[in-house]
UniProtKB/TrEMBL annotation:
The lineage of its organism: Eukaryota, Viridiplantae, Streptophyta, Embryophyta, Tracheophyta. Residues 179-220 form a coiled coil. Residues 454-504 form the Anaphase-promoting complex subunit 4-like WD40 domain. Residues 229-285 are annotated as: Disordered. It comes from the Eukaryota. It comes from Digitaria exilis. PANTHER family: OS05G0299300 PROTEIN (PTHR47198), WD REPEAT-CONTAINING PROTEIN 91-LIKE ISOFORM X1 (PTHR47198:SF1). InterPro entries: Apc4-like_WD40_dom, ARMC9_CTLH-like_dom, WD40/YVTN_repeat-like_dom_sf, WD40_repeat_dom_sf, WD40_rpt. Keywords: Coiled coil, WD repeat. Residues 51-169 form the ARMC9 CTLH-like domain. WD repeats lie at residues 306-347, 494-527, 587-621. This is Anaphase-promoting complex subunit 4 WD40 domain-containing protein. Residues 273-285 have a biased composition (Basic and acidic residues).
Amino acid sequence: MENIRYAEELVREFLVFRGFTSTLQAYESELSTEIGRNFQVDKILDLVFSEYIAKYQLDRLVGLFTFFKQCFTSPVDAELFSTLVKLELSVLRYYVVNALKSGRQDKVIEFFGESGNYLMQKREDWLAWFAIPYIKNPSFDPQFRVYFSKEWLDTLILSFRNFLSGTFNDTRIPALLRISTEKNTIKSLKNDIKQLNNKLAELQASLEAKEDEISQLRRNYNGAGYGSKNLVGTSTASAPPKQEMSENYEESSVSSSRIQGFDSRSSSTRSGKLHESSEIRHTEDEQVLMTEEDFPEVKVDFQETFLGHNSSISQCRFSASGSNIASSSIDGTVRIWTYDSSTPSSKNATIYCGAEVSALSWECRSDRLLLIGTANGGIKAWNADAKRVVCDLNTSRDFPSILDLKCSPVEPVFVSAAASRRRGSTIFERTGFANLTVWHMKTWKPLTVLPLGEDPPAITSLCFNHNGKILAASATDGMIHMFDMSAGMQITGWPAHDSPVSSVLFGPAETSIFSLGSDGKIFEWSLHNQGQILWSRDCSRFCNPESFNKQMHEIALDSNGKRLLVTSGLVRAPIYQVQGHESGLRTLPHSSSITSVDWHPTLPMYITGSADHSVRVTSII
């Protein structure tokens, strides 16, 4: 306690020295009502049982335990944290019991109304208690009788006293005094991690260079004629015997007719369009062509890894400001967190959805609302400020799977892409017919259903333009649909792929649209000349058809519209250079496949979620 008092005196001296008199008065006032009561056990017990419980101040009671929980953040505090959670459970139960003893039935109903979502996270502890307001004499009920006894209350107070006495004493530094030291330690660790990452990147680059040299020597030795694959005009030799060489050769031999090579299995009408578009952007014959294996690794400014999930990551999204991140896993858990220790963590939360999370979408105008779509047709609206679910919707029984959700950038509406179910081996075969519903975000009622025709194939991905007037949607039959949101009708559409389209998004100037097919082909389509391809890549090495059996791949474009990041069935993901003469980059490796990607709304920073249960935020130079 002497350390706390000394710190308080230092703060007073600083405020007096700087002449901050009004701040000093507020500081003295806050100290007089300080929630921790200087960690004096008797005062804390009196605060809990004589003030908060006796006067039904539930919000302050919960706030006190939240404050105590913040004192146990390190791994060595895990046992103490677990004990505190059990004490909180008993104290909240006594809050209910005290209200019933006092005849305040209204306070009991208010308790479950305000804390219902929080209590349901501990379902097994509270499920039976939701019935207690409606039991005539709960003190005689065998299930609750013990909680109305004086012995149980005395035991609770004694346990609470022992916990506080053994935790907050003069030999234990309270968490509030550890904050400064911890921040300095974190800063030092971040610098160490940054240096280690740079060293690791150098070693990996050196190793890969050596492997390339060995591979080159083997090719020369085999006499297959591919020793000069990086030179222009050397793509006329016979096919190499190995599959890996075939893939490399196929990528390096498309200098003058790259689009034609991508569309070797397309229909005759589409190949004609590809011929036409190949004349636009194929003046690169004089440049060196590179495969993804030759892409240099990204130069990292810093990287943060979040390990708060217990299963494969299904979605990860930056918020509108980029300060907060929402990530979900296939076990139905959503976590909201921050990657920067200087950013307030007031929105941090864990949300349990009870089903696999298939879609996440932040409100575009603030970091307040997060929409969560699940594989069983549920849509939850989470208020990040209030930390509670403000609406829980369900699609119709005919369309029980949510495939995507998108909020309008202007209007208070969002669109849900739902689908019926059917049997199949791949993720696309398991989706049936489509449903596109527009919802109002104030009434939480459906406004309209966008027309798709009779028995339309499932919609896999949605994207609004900048003013929310146009909605792009991709489908499992290879089509891209465009909707006028004001009229609520489809205005155009075209066959983009010979396979299901997995992801779609608008280009930077919104004069084009990008699409990713399940065959691994990426196209940039002109919106001025429908059907014309402006740019394309084959990323089937990363998004091979087999990987679509487990996940639906997606693409993300940075804020400048120059870099396109793609999910990957491998441990690395490609970052294609859409504009300029550079070919692309490679991400740092996860330990398993990369299942979700997103770019920061303003900074050169991206996020990758992986099947290894981790989420990484990477800032690049």
